[in-house]
Amino acid sequence: MFQKIEKYTFLALALFVITACSNNDSDEKEEVIPIDTTKPTITCESSISVFIDAGKNDAIVNYTAPVGTDNVLGAVTAQTAGLASGSSFPIGTTTNTFVTTDKAGNTASCSFDVVVMEPSGDKPYAVVDGVEVPSGKKWVKVEDMSDEFDGTTFDDNKWHRYPSSDGFSWIGRPPALFEADNVTVANGNLNITVEKFDAPKRVNGIDWTHGGAIVRSKITAKPGYYYECKMQANKTIMSSTFWIAFKQNCNTGPVRKLELDIQECVGRLTNTAAWADNFDQIYASNTWRHERDCDTEVTGSKQSPAKTILTEKNNSRYFVYGCWWKSPTEILFYLDGKLSHSITNPPADFDLEGHITMAIETYDWNPIDANTIFDTGSFEDLTTKYDWVRTWKLENQ
């Protein structure tokens, strides 16, 4: 009997202890950890549009990478698509996406596009970077002085290639003779290829040892127009040029002999005159008033040059050389779509009409030397290539 009482007493005490512990637990407050359901925020910049430089297939683009924020410290932002700032972006559209993730795993994202474009052929190459369009005006291509040089046929309706019929009758500067058979159209280019003759050619009492060529527009160039070409120089001592030549006549006028050099360079330097020691990596422009007996207003030839020294050789790639002959006294020069230099003090008012000219010639200040490549150079080495020539004028909208 005593054992049963003892057993029941023990059970009662155990039940009391369990009940007491249970009551004590219910009196304590549990720690509640809040659940973060708030997404972080992130904002990208607007889309970026850029044009490639001449001869390039991509463009380096810099932008500010977005950084997300959150109501709780510790959110992390990462780029999940596209290219980092400072990368070379290919032609086309690249979408850059950034995602911010907070500690709770909530995410937010944003995207923006980098659009890399080739400049359009329906407006000047430099129109985006500085060739202004006056209010109420638009640039219109002058087709008779523009050529994409597609196909394989030289357009004799637009261009002279025979010095005997271009109205100037200049056959070259010795020792290089201008010959039309050095001019071809192929592979999307106007090609002017230089050569060394197997034997000298005697023309007009002069022995010519090398050959070049000259091409001129049949339609005259005028003030107010914009002129541009995409050109890669040859690798020889001979020139690669793009300029405007003006006729002069002491009897019928005009008596002023002007010359507007948009670009004049050589492919390789030799025993070059000191003033031309960068002429294989240069954007060299000039305005000339050449001496003529009947031009009595000046004594001697006068010039007003402007230039930009390049970091690359003129023969290393295509460059786009542009000229806005804005007025008779203001001429602006553009390189790969950007303003490079200007001439605002020409030696005369450039108010005459001239002819676009592409001449590949020799100079006495950069003579042929023993390291000549005329016998060993490839077609590419010996050829100045013009991808296109374009002329624009302003018209009312």
TrEMBL record:
Domain GH16: 118-397
Gene3D superfamilies: 2.60.120.200
GO biological process, one term: carbohydrate metabolic process
Molecular functions per Gene Ontology: hydrolase activity, hydrolyzing O-glycosyl compounds
Keyword set, alphabetical order: Repeat
Entries under InterPro entries matching the protein: Beta-glucanase-like, ConA-like_dom_sf, HYR_dom, SRPX-like
Any one Pfam family match given in the protein's UniProt record, by short name: HYR
TM region positions: none
Domain HYR: 35-118
Top-level taxon of origin: Bacteria
Family listed: Belongs to the glycosyl hydrolase 16 family.
Protein name: Putative hemagglutinin/hemolysin-related protein
